[in-house]
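Submission checklist for the structure archive. All mandatory fields must be present; incomplete records are returned to the submitter.

[x] Identifier: V-type proton ATPase subunit F
[x] Organism: Gopherus evgoodei
[x] Residue count: 119
[x] Sequence attached
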Amino acid sequence: MAGRGKLIAVLGDEDTVTGFLLGGVGELNKHRKPNFLVVEKDTSLTEIEETFRSFLAREDIGIILINQFIAELIRHVLDGHTRSLPAVLEIPSKEHPYDAARDSILRRARGMFTAEDLR
């Protein structure tokens, strides 16, 4: 990875993942594993969890984007991730708007600062 940047991984619905793939984020690593997963109605919770954990373990991934409604399904796994890299960002989808109150990463970040720190 010397001289190369880190990848963005995406776990989301078809519209979200397709948009990011059209934007050029799609890659396969040396083991031919993609950096994205389209979550459909028949995608098992186990597959979502395993994919997210595999993204966490990959050295070539710096950011994981996940639709918030999917993050809710594996919240226990997201809450267990405490490292700064890869950064996990919850994003909205066309059908599910973003709710900051549900974002555990944002809640954790808010707890790091006081009102005095922001002045």
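[x] Structure attached
Curator remark: Residues 7-110 form a domain with the Rossmann fold fold (CATH 3.40.50.10580). The chain has a mean pLDDT of 85.
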